[in-house]
Amino acid sequence: MQLDSLYQEVILDHYKHPQHKGLSSNFDAQVHHVNTSCGDEITLNITLEADIVSSLTWDGQGCSISQASVSMMSDLLLGKSINDASAILSSFCELMASKGTSTGDADLLEDAVAFAGVSKFPGRIKCALLGWMAFKDVVIQAQSK
Amino acid sequence: MPLSVEEIRKDFPIFERTVRDGKKLIYLDSGATSQKPNAVIDAESDFYRFHNSAAHRGVHQLAEEATDAYEGARETVATFLGAPGGSNEIVFTKSATEALNLLAYAMGNAAPGSRFALEPGDRIVVTEMEHHSNLVPWQQLAQRTGAELAWFEVTPDGRLDLSALDTVISHGTKVVALTHQSNVLGTINPLDEIVRRAHEVGAVVILDACQSAPHMRINVEELGIDFLAFSGHKALGPTGVGVLWGRINLLENLPPFLFGGSMIEMVTMTSATWAPVPQKFEAGVPNMAQAVGLAAALDYLTKIGMDNIHAHESALTGLLLDKLLAIDKVAVIGPTSNTERGSALSFTVSDIHPHDLGQFLDSQGIAVRTGAHCAWPLARRLNVSATTRASLYLYNDEQDCQALADGVVAAQRYFGSF
Ligand SMILES: Cc1ncc(COP(=O)(O)O)c(C=O)c1O
C-alpha cells in the first residue's frame, strides 16, 4: 500500500516516543510556528555555544508527520555546527521538493530519509517541514542576539 | 419521499471516476464543497457556448439573452429563499465570504446617524461557533468603528448558550451575525428567540446559511431575519457565485461597498449616484455563467425537494452517529442527539491525529475534511486542535456511512500495529 511509504515505521516510532520534547528553561532564542491549514503547532528552543547547537528542545502538537519530523530533526541537529545543520536543512528541503523522485542523502539525513515518501503527498509536505522551518527561523534569531 | 441515491448519482459525473488506484469514491466532504450534477455543468457551459455576452450592456441579441439568463437566475434564487420582495432582494456576489464582507464594509460606509452606522458604545454580536468568514469581517468592523464585539458562547455539547440572551444582545446592539448551521458541529441554531431579541433592540439579524440553504428548505420570511448569505458551490452550484439576500428597505438604505461600472446611476468627474438595488451592490460585469449554473442547481434541488433532501440527510446522520459512537475511542464533537442537527459530523479518535486519520481514509477512497475547519475560536473553546469531519449530501447513502465506520476501525488497526 502506498500509505506505507508515508508512514514508515521509524516515523511512527518517533511519533510515539518523541525525542527532545519538553522545552528547556534556558535558551538563546525561541520560536513558535503554526501550520495554518491544519493547526499543527511547534515551539522550538535553541542554545548555541560558539556556533554549535548545544541545546535544541521543543514542544508541540500535531499529526505524526509533523511531530516525528521535529523529533528526528532535533536528534539530528543537536551538537552540529550551524554550517553542518544548514547543509542538512537544505538537503531535507530538497528531499521534500522531490515529488517522490529522490530517496534522500542518507549520509546527511540519516533516519530522516524515511520522510522521502512524504514528498509524494503534497498535502503533507508542510507537516514534515514545520519543525525545520522553525529551526531556520530560530537560528536567525539566536544569531542576531 | 425517500431519495433514490442510485438514480441521483447518475446525474453526477464525478462518481464515474475512481480514486487512489481504483477505489470507489466515497465523498464525505460536501460541507467544504459539493459535487456538481450534469444539469449545472451543462447550464454553465451552455451559457458560454450559446449566450455569452455582457449582461445589462449593449442592445444586441446576445446581450439580451445574457441579461435574461442572469436576471432569470436572480428570480430562481428569490423563489428558492422565499424572498418577500422578490428578485430585487437578491444580490449576486462571488461567495458567501464576499457577501458577508459586503455587509460589513457597507455598514462601515454608512453615514453617521444611519441605523447601520456603528460607533463606540454600539455592539456587534456573533457566536463562538462562527466560520472565520462570519467572524473576522465583524472583528474588523468593530476595530474600524470602535464598536464592541460580543458573542454567545458554545456549551460542551455544542449548542449555543443563550442563557444570557438579553444581556449579550444589549440595547446598543446593531448587528447580530450568526450561522444557521455550524460547519463543524452540525448544530442548527434556534433563531426565534435571537431574532425576537435582536429586533427588540433595533438590531439587524444576518444569517450565514452556507451550511443550511443547500440542505433544508429556507424561507427568509418565516425565519424573520434581515440578511442571509450562502455560497453556490456548496449547493451543487459552480464556484465563483454567492448570494446575499436582504430586505428591500434595508438594502435601499445600505450604502454600496464596491464601486465601478453598472452600480451607478449618474457619474460626473467628481461625483456619482447609485443605481437601484440590487445593481447598487453589483459593480462590474458579474459572474453570469456561474449565476446561471447556480439557478440550475437550485432547480435541481427543488425538483428533488428540499424537505426530501433534509429527511434523507437526517436519517443518514442518525445512522452515522450510531455507527461512530459504537466505535471504541471515538468522540463526536457536537450534538450526539439527532435533533436540531444537520449532517456535518465532526469527531476525534484518540491516539490518531485527524490528519493521519484523513490520510488513511483517503487510501480507502474516503474523502473527509480534517483540521480546525476555519473555526479556530470554536476549536479552542472545545479544546480540540483539530477534528475529522464527515459531511453528507443527497448523493450519500448507508454504504458511505458504513465505509467511514469501517475505515475508522481499520485506521485504528493500522496505526495501532506499530
Ligand atoms: C458556515 C460557513 N460560513 C461561511 C463559509 C464561507 O464560504 P465561502 O468560502 O464559499 O465563501 C463556509 C465555507 O466553508 C461555511 O461553512
UniProtKB/TrEMBL annotation, chain A:
One of its GO terms (biological process) is iron-sulfur cluster assembly. SUPFAM superfamilies: SufE/NifU. Residues 7-127 form the NIF system FeS cluster assembly NifU N-terminal domain. It comes from freshwater metagenome. Coiled coil: none annotated. This is Unannotated protein. CDD domains: IscU_like (cd06664). InterPro entries: NIF_FeS_clus_asmbl_NifU_N. One of its GO terms (molecular function) is iron-sulfur cluster binding.
UniProtKB/TrEMBL annotation, chain B:
Its EC number is 2.8.1.7. Its cofactor is pyridoxal 5'-phosphate. It catalyses: (sulfur carrier)-H + L-cysteine = (sulfur carrier)-SH + L-alanine. Residues 26-404 form the Aminotransferase class V domain. Gene3D superfamilies: Aspartate Aminotransferase, domain 1, Type I PLP-dependent aspartate aminotransferase-like (Major domain). Keywords: Pyridoxal phosphate, Transferase. InterPro entries: Aminotrans_V_dom (IPR000192), Aminotrans_V_PyrdxlP_BS (IPR020578), Cys_dSase_SufS (IPR010970), PyrdxlP-dep_Trfase (IPR015424), PyrdxlP-dep_Trfase_major (IPR015421), PyrdxlP-dep_Trfase_small (IPR015422). One of its GO terms (molecular function) is cysteine desulfurase activity. GO terms for biological process: cysteine metabolic process. The keyword Transferase applies. Transmembrane segments: none annotated. Pfam families: Aminotran_5. PANTHER family: CYSTEINE DESULFURASE, CYSTEINE DESULFURASE 1, CHLOROPLASTIC. Belongs to the class-V pyridoxal-phosphate-dependent aminotransferase family. Csd subfamily. NCBIfam families: sufS (TIGR01979). This is cysteine desulfurase. It comes from freshwater metagenome.
